[in-house]
């Protein structure tokens, strides 16, 4: 009997379902420390995947992407403090503001290319940080804002147990993966890749590069803002240095670059490898050497650039491809790589 690509007997179908089922069991067997670690992995994977939409597929090296994260964190918090609104409504408002800023930024900054575009995103990030530092009455300035505690309530996005946060973070990550998957196989995705590789050649064949980049940047901003709202509701605190910090913004990009940008699974793989490393180094050396995790990122990035320029996904592809072939139903599967099958040649 022939086995179709979408058949449940195909390991490309049932393996992700099995992994998801195992993840859903974690809250029932793992202690709070490991649940917290997985929540952070999911969040950073979602942030890196959101950045990957425009930075990976489009080749637009945005180093100020935390702008949308900060807006998504601050808007719901301000609305909750000032007007007592539920964070779910604040999330919608934050998403709308982030999308509007992305449209304005795209209209201005997409006239620039290469390192000039990267510098312009850093400038926007620093401007936002300074604005939120100075608006003390609204944002709390350097002291920051604390989310008002309303009790264990889904309405106010606050829970005594980490399990709901775990599930919500997992849903956000799945949403980001789905967005990357759909973009990688869409007409817009192929056009965006063409623009990222050679914008002049893409425009010669009739691709509206500015319109496509603005559209994808808008989607990236929306997903990043969503992550910002989750972060502040999970941590109960935000300040300008966290929300609009250059090191944090750079970290988002590095996870995608080290994992393998321009792929669906690269940012996820990067987060699952790097976040545990960061947690270990911060726990053991963070008290003595502040920012040690950035040094670790730099060393890993240097090694990846030298030995695996396509990212860590290039190292794991043969392993996953072999796993697919030896699993039941995978003997006749295409030996092409499993994790990187979404990447253009």
User: How many separate structural domains?
Assistant: 1
Quickly count the helices: 15
Task: Give the beta-strand count.
Answer: 2
- Average pLDDT taken over every residue: 87
Q: Give Rg in angstroms.
A: 20 Å
Which strand order does the major sheet show? 1-2
Key traits:
single chain; 345 residues; mainly alpha; 15 helices; 2 strands; 70% helix
Would you kindly provide a written description of the structure presented here, covering whatever features stand out?
The structure is a single chain. By secondary structure, the chain is mostly helical. It has one domain. The protein contains 15 helices and two strands. The chain has a two-stranded antiparallel sheet with strand order 1-2. α3 packs antiparallel against α4, α12 packs across α13 and α12 runs parallel beside α14. The longest helix is centred in the middle third of the chain and has 27 residues, at 209-235. The model has no long low-confidence stretch (mean pLDDT 87).
